[in-house]
Amino acid sequence: MLKVLDFLMDNEIFDYSKADIADGAGISRATLFKVWPKLEDLELVTATRSVGQAKMYKLNKQNLIIKKLMELDDAISEYFALKHCSPQISSSNDVTDVIVQGHGFIKNLIEYEEDSPRPLTDQRKELLIA
Fold this sequence. Notes:
By secondary structure, the protein is mainly alpha-helical. The protein has two domains: 2-59, Winged helix-like DNA-binding domain superfamily/Winged helix DNA-binding domain (Arc Repressor Mutant, subunit A), CATH 1.10.10; 64-129, no CATH class. It contains six helices and two strands. The protein has helices spanning 2-10, 18-25, 29-41, 64-85, 92-113, 120-129, and strands at 45-51, 54-59. β1 and β2 form a beta hairpin. α1 (2-10) packs across α2, α2 (18-25) packs across α3 and α4 (64-85) runs antiparallel to α5 (92-113). The longest helix is centred in the middle third of the chain and has 22 residues, at 64-85. It is globular, with a radius of gyration of 16 Å.
């Protein structure tokens, strides 16, 4: 699921078919179809239009989970861009401030992917709380 979200975050301007998303994320279509129901259940993706018989999808930027993931992605990118441009920012503690805030959220997202036996509503609440 994280590869799909990463692809869609990196290409947030456009919408894609499921086949294009699988190719762009570097996963098989079978893997995409396995995780797709979870992406829809959490409302992380949204259908935008149809092209022929193919439905097109993009990231649901109104979703709180997506907003948090995008904030974390931006913060990590900014940190490494600054580190690359300014070598004096080399302490490993500097990135901790950025990553620690999203660590619990990412851990909960990974646990959700592992199909824990908890009800879906409980998992959604935990992801939103993180």
